[in-house]
Write a structure and sequence with these properties.
alpha+beta; 2 domains; two-stranded antiparallel sheet; 5 helices
Length: about 220
């Protein structure tokens, strides 16, 4: 029996243990890291005993896609709901509603029509006209503010999407260096986290090629 064989087996076992322990430690240290996917050290048997064949990333592609879809739906609906509520609150508010202003205007105009020579009725009509004009102007200003806020948010989201798009391009270039071999799990984590962040800003369609390179495009609303 070759005395080196037991020694080689012992060394291989020690290395296997160290690699497996490193995977566990990495998982623990990244427990609260955003976008991190747990890694697993796959043990294989060989003539020299057990060894680490590969370190795989425990990521669920379907779950990732579902998360992006949910984020995209929320990204589309939340701003629309917020601005719709602002408009409804503006129109329905007693302090800004046009209904009361129009009611007052038509009431004073009808009263003046019955007695055009009445000075008090004339003053009331002028007052209600001024009040209505003020309400209309105020509402127009508020609506314009909503439009400005909406446009500013859209521009901000576009800037963020452009930034994430650049980050995704950089990650894709790094992935190209691993063509034909498994890329580092951390690099795939970066890729998927970027896609999640993009889906929080807009509805996107995502595709992957054989090398794991991702492409994200804006989807139809």
């Amino acid at each position: 029996m070759n005395l080196s064989d037991p020694l080689s087996v012992s060394i291989a076992a020690t290395q296997t243990y160290k690699k497996a322990l490193t995977a566990v430690q990495t998982n623990i240290s990244n427990l609260n890291t955003e976008g991190y996917s747990r890694i697993e050290a796959k043990v294989s048997e060989s003539g020299m005993g057990a060894g680490i064949a590969t370190v795989t990333r425990s990521a669920d592609a379907f779950a990732e896609k579902t998360l992006r879809s949910a984020n995209s739906a929320l990204a589309f609906e939340k701003p629309a709901t917020n601005y719709a509520n602002r408009i409804l609150n503006l129109v329905g508010s007693e302090s800004s509603s046009l209904t009361a202003a129009f009611d007052r205007f038509f009431s004073s105009s009808n009263q003046l029509a019955t007695n055009p020579s009445s000075e008090p009725l004339r003053q009331d009509f002028l007052s209600s006209s001024t009040f209505l004009a003020g309400r209309v102007k105020s509402m127009a200003t508020e609506l314009q503010d909503i439009v400005i806020d909406n446009n500013a948010e859209v521009e901000h989201r576009i800037d963020q999407l452009n930034g994430f798009s650049s980050q995704l391009s950089a990650v894709n270039k790094q992935l190209l260096a691993f063509t034909g071999e498994p890329p580092p799990p951390s690099l795939l984590d970066q890729r998927d986290l970027i896609l999640v962040k993009m889906s929080e800003l807009a509805k996107i369609d995502v595709t992957f090629d054989a090398n794991g390179l991702a492409s994200a495009t804006l989807a139809e609303p």
